[in-house]
Amino acid sequence: MKIDAVTFFQSCRMSMTDLLNAEDIKKAVGAFSAIDSFDHKKFFQMVGLKKKSADDVKKVFHILDKDKSGFIEEDELGFILKGFSPDARDLSAKETKTLMAAGDKDGDGKIGVDEFSTLVAES
């Protein structure tokens, strides 16, 4: 998927709280603070991502894609909660694998922007 330069540069500067309510993020991160409690469907609903436009979901994806490769790889996926709140915990290996299995629709071992959008839409 190609994005235009303006979208790319905006996503580089954009923070999660530019798109989502800070209090919603705090509550959602807190709700899944226990190891192996993460449920991406509930999390995406709690942070308000499910209600966002397709463009905003793509902007969130680009914030989470820390290495700007155009994909969220398994190592980045383990830190997904930190993408929403820097003091959040890392996902466990089990949670990371579960989330990857749910999001990686084409089986290439990474989640692209369209796969992420589908993952959010299915939440």
From TrEMBL:
Q: Which GO terms describe its molecular function?
A: calcium ion binding
Q: Which UniProt keywords apply?
A: Calcium, Metal-binding, Repeat
The cross-references to Pfam families, in alphabetical order and at most eight, read: EF-hand_7
Q: Where is the EF-hand domain?
A: 52-87, 91-123
Q: Which residues bind Ca(2+)?
A: 65, 67, 69, 71, 76, 104, 106, 108, 110, 115
Which PANTHER family does the record associate with it? PARVALBUMIN ALPHA
Function of this protein?
A: In muscle, parvalbumin is thought to be involved in relaxation after contraction. It binds two calcium ions.
- Give the protein family: Belongs to the parvalbumin family.
Instruction: Please give the name of this protein.
Output: Parvalbumin
Question: What is the species of this protein?
Answer: Macaca mulatta (Rhesus macaque)
**What gene is this protein a product of?**
PVALB
